[in-house]
Amino acid sequence: MTIDHTADHQVHIIGGGLAGSEAAWQLAQRGVKVRLSEMRGSGEMTPAHQTETLAELVCSNSFRSDDAENNAVGLLHQEMRDLGSLIMRCADDAKVPAGSALAVDRDVFAMSVQQAIEAHENIELVRERVDKLPSQGHVIVATGPLTAQSLADSIIGVTGAERLAFFDAIAPIVHHHSINFDIAWYQSRWDKGDGKDYINCPMDEAQYIEFHTGLIESEKAEFKDWEKDTPYFEGCMPVEVMASRGLDTLRFGPMKPVGLTNPATGQRAHAVVQLRQDNKQGTLWNIVGFQTKMKYGAQGDLLRKIPGLEKAEFARMGGIHRNTFIQSPILLDKQLRLRSAPHIRFAGQITGCEGYVESSAIGLLTGIMTAAEIAGREVEAAPPQTTSLGALLAHITGEAAPSGKVKDYQPMNVNFGLFKPLEGKVHKKQRKQAMTTRAANDMREWRAAAGL
């Protein structure tokens, strides 16, 4: 579809996911007129989405740790809240129990985002597929990792670079009433939160070995020709791929038994499968870390061998889809503008950040930067690399990359390894606290200098 740039909008955002919705909100709150184009609802759908709702969560329902004092993503949560993030506001409103993590009822969350977008006088939501990058006007591309082929081809044509790709996987969701609590029990690892935010299914050594063998030998879905030779993202690895790396890999990953005591035995199990609440009512629970490419029949047969899930009923089976991202350090400037076409900015997972919060954060920054540019004053400096926002931006734009390494660019969740190192000697146990304290101070100074 060709967009009429005489229409009454100042910025055209393509994609109504987390990043696009956040960018639209930031612009609209600053008085900028926005056209938000979303393909779903126009008769089109992606391989992973199930609804037409804006900001649909297609994988986990977790925004990960909400600890702003000891965790990089928790710090990112707080920085976004301080900047008036719509995504964080809606996530807080849709929160479900998850220990120290922020997990949400995915339906409540997405509908809350959509209602806010639809109600804003400065946003026009249009259900349409955009096939070509606009040649004029302020544009933000936030189509995510499932960008339609026609638009992806247009992006390749403008950038002159081949896109990169990786696979992302979806975990199964179980109906709570089908879980056997004669075997399973409620407990958070190390009793964090209220101590009962997760459901645990224990395995002894023999059960674990049998389950591991089943994962290795299970029937897998076939890759399409265009999916072959595409690397997995390490942060969202299918469970059977993890299992193939060694017998104990899962016991040091999603099935680690540490911090949990089986009340039936008073002992720690050999391995534990955890489930996390997926909706406010507590009727749906997802199997933590069990993203998979197993065929649906094989999934059901094997997952029902987990003690406590013998009669499990599944609201959704696991799946896998291809994600795509651009070579951002080469293609984008420090303001997330396309070097070859600076009227276009990119936001969200298509830039190569990974995770709901990270995608939303880059949407937030593109909104702020575009609004400042329209007002005639670009944000002179990016958030410092001592903050979560700044560290994530530095990774995407290549500012944090070693010399000559931008060509090796890979997706990344925010983590303290992206931050500027602390000055002087700081005891290991105090490093995280020192980094978050420094980040809070530097973020306040940056916001004041940038008029935010």
Account of the 3D structure:
- This protein is an alpha+beta fold.
- It has twelve helices and 17 strands.
- It has helices at 18-29, 72-82, 86-93, 106-119, 149-159, 205-217, 239-243, 296-303, 328-331, 356-374, 388-397, 431-450; strands at residues 11-14, 34-38, 62-65, 95-96, 101-104, 123-127, 138-141, 164-170, 173-175, 185-186, 198-203, 271-277, 284-287, 314-316, 319-325, 337-338, 341-346.
- The protein has a six-stranded mixed β-sheet with strand order 6-2-1-7-17-16, with helices on one face.
- Helix 1 packs parallel to helix 10 (356-374) and helix 2 packs parallel to helix 10 (356-374).
Strand content: 15-25%
CA(first)-CA(last) distance: 36 Å
Radius of gyration: 22 Å
H and E order: EHEEHHEEHEEHEEEEHHEEHEEHEEHHH
Q: Biggest sheet: strands, sense, closure?
A: 6 strands, mixed
- The general outline is globular
pLDDT averaged over residues = 90
Structural class: alpha+beta
Helix fraction by DSSP (H/I, runs of at least 4): 25-40%
Separate helix tally: 12
Total strands: 17
Brief characterization of the structure:
By secondary structure, the protein is of the alpha+beta class.
Question: Keywords, please?
Answer:
452 residues, globular, alpha+beta, six-stranded antiparallel β-sheet
Secondary-structure topology with pairs:
Layout: E1 11-14, H1 18-29, E2 34-38, E3 62-65, H2 72-82, H3 86-93, E4 95-96, E5 101-104, H4 106-119, E6 123-127, E7 138-141, H5 149-159, E8 164-170, E9 173-175, E10 185-186, E11 198-203, H6 205-217, H7 239-243, E12 271-277, E13 284-287, H8 296-303, E14 314-316, E15 319-325, H9 328-331, E16 337-338, E17 341-346, H10 356-374, H11 388-397, H12 431-450
Helix pairs in contact: 1-10, 2-10, 3-4
